[in-house]
Amino acid sequence: MFPASCSRLSRLSLSITRGxxxxxxxxxxxxxSWSKVVSDAExxxxxxxxxxxxxxLLSDELSNVAMHVRKLVGTQxxxxxxxxGFVFDSKNNIQMRGLIVxxxxxxxxxxxxxxxxxxxDMVSGIYPSQRNLAEITELIHTxxxxxxxxxxxxEWTISDGPLKDMEFGNKMAVLSGDFLLANAxxxxxxxNDTKVVELISSAIGDLVQGIYYENSYNAEDVLTxxxxxxxxxxxxxxxxGSLLAKxxxxxxxxxxxxxxxxxxxxxxxxxLSLGHKLNFxxxxxxxxxxxxxxxxSLSAAPVVLHRQIVGKEEWHQQLQQAKTLRxxxxxxxxxxxVKSEKGVSSAVDLCCYHSNKALEAxxxxxxSEARSALKNIASAIAKF
Length: 384
Fold this sequence. Notes:
CATH class: Mainly Alpha
Number of domains: 1
Order of helices and strands: HHHHHHHHHHHHHHHH
Distance between the termini: 36 Å
Number of helices: 16
CATH topology: Farnesyl Diphosphate Synthase
Structural class: mainly alpha
Number of strands: 0
Largest sheet: none
């Protein structure tokens, strides 16, 4: 097995509840081991993730955008934090998806099947088309990060900054995100592979649908009714896992690997994404300190699992008990209620399950330094 027409994109304008959005799926859990795993993996593929999308991000067009974004300094518009994270962010590995694609490409290597892909074109064991795919994956992810920075102006307060600046920031988020998506689609078409176009286009569709439902879960009227764990996992896969899973599959396809190799690569991306999302959601519950509870998400996995365990009636009572005199939630009380049941331990078990499934998916790939890096990354998501 081993040696195994981008459609027009409509503008995505999503409103994110302030205090409940996260910059990136692949965020540091504060563990030094995670940073070391990433650093070691970057050396293997010869491509630091901090440079993954800079070819586009440092273009003349986006340089002009950056000049306009400076007008938002002094406001609370989330586009500012997103822009800072593009170049360097010690707490987030924004370009992790591309790194995974490159590692899988190097792990699988060239196909044993008769191929018109010359091995001499490979650099560090990776075909140029696979490197281009990694950049396309990052461009799409970055575009959606920018689009996620659109603020719901109905929740605007004077402390956020002047209303006209917030409106300007929203316009910049829409236009900048559209620019990145357009570049991604152009590069996708240049790969000249209809299956890759089809898979990545479907991943974009999954992102739109998943983020739409994710925002719906953040609304209190939906949260009080609850969503079961199966539905949560399905929606989290669409908004956080589909792009990586399908990009991993495409990396195998571009090297002419068979369907089984593509399936295993897809499963690795899927389970790694879900495992890391669970790890991210668990951080407020497993840290020794309570941290910034204003950013505590009511759609986090431990809350969803807790709500399912205690039942709708008990959950409603806990919500009421956690409300202050101003009818706002006291997140410290809610955190204590969730930690008192099995929601946290269930989320930890589920995180370990996805970590193990990711490890299982790459077990049949040839033993190599790149495969060891993939195993280390999959193992790291189950550490807290």
